[in-house]
């Protein structure tokens, strides 16, 4: 009898991770797939890729404004499911309505609606949920959750490319909208902010974590801009600069004269790297600590950045560079939240991390626009790829120096 009860309890924890993974796929996974639609959307509204990239920035701005409010409403009882459901509706409607947009203004409104959905499906809620539900292995669970965006991108980019060839880009985008909405439904009806809301206990050290969960659920303090806040915000800006390169990988392939299929394959390789390195990073952060894991991640990231910035002679090496680019998702989605957990006090974490993640999201979208405009102007991504490599190197140096000075291990 006890074994049956333990199995049911274990399934609850697994279900929480899977539901959170669905939310992350609906939010970030769809964004990873939007790149292959940029040219079609631009042609449909008789404009350039830079204009569509600017609308993506508006999407990020809308997400930012919503994201700022999340720490002050997410602790209300039983509101998480409503936020997830509303976010899924906004995300799906924004994608679906984009197929009918024939003017730049109407397409901009569609992206704004998607931005509101992204803000309601923010990773801040998912990080808080996982750290409340899991005392042990939280980084691994976060890795399993966030790798869903990479899995979604790796699977759906070639699928959507085939859809576009067979049925047109509009039906492919409608299919993406339906998938995004369906993925949010399990979390909307199952996930709670804390296990206490379901009369459960967290996985791991139950009694200790129960008291921590209760205190966390009541905390949403004010934001103090001290040296730790400056450090985290600086890292978030640098992360956004090099991570936004992923938005243009398929267009980067096109700029090199690659076919649509090969460009989609480049994005898929990046998404496979996304999955592999997130899973590896999650296990390594739990097992080996932040400092050693970050050192390895930055070394791999720099290698991938060098390939994308300077190497053009071999398709397989270029695909390898795209794969290595996926390690950046491991740091930004796993390492960055874990680093913030060590830097901030528990009572300050939610509002301060919200500001940092909002900064990252806004700069991410802004860089996506700048890269798109620069491509429209020059027809190449050479300088932007070098900029991203420089951002990786600077970020690595700042993080390593800070970890050494503060004794973060």
Mean pLDDT: 83
Strand content: under 5%
User: Sheet with the most strands?
Assistant: none
Total strands: the figure is 0
TL;DR?
The protein has 409 residues and is mostly helical. The chain has 17 helices and no strands.
What is the element layout, followed by pairings?
Blueprint: H1 2-33, H2 38-44, H3 49-73, H4 80-98, H5 104-120, H6 123-133, H7 138-167, H8 169-190, H9 206-217, H10 227-243, H11 249-255, H12 260-288, H13 290-310, H14 315-325, H15 327-343, H16 346-378, H17 382-406
Helix pairs in contact: 1-6, 1-7, 1-8, 2-3, 3-5, 3-16, 4-5, 4-8, 7-8, 7-12, 7-15, 10-15, 10-16, 10-17, 11-12, 12-13, 12-14, 12-15, 13-14, 13-15, 13-17
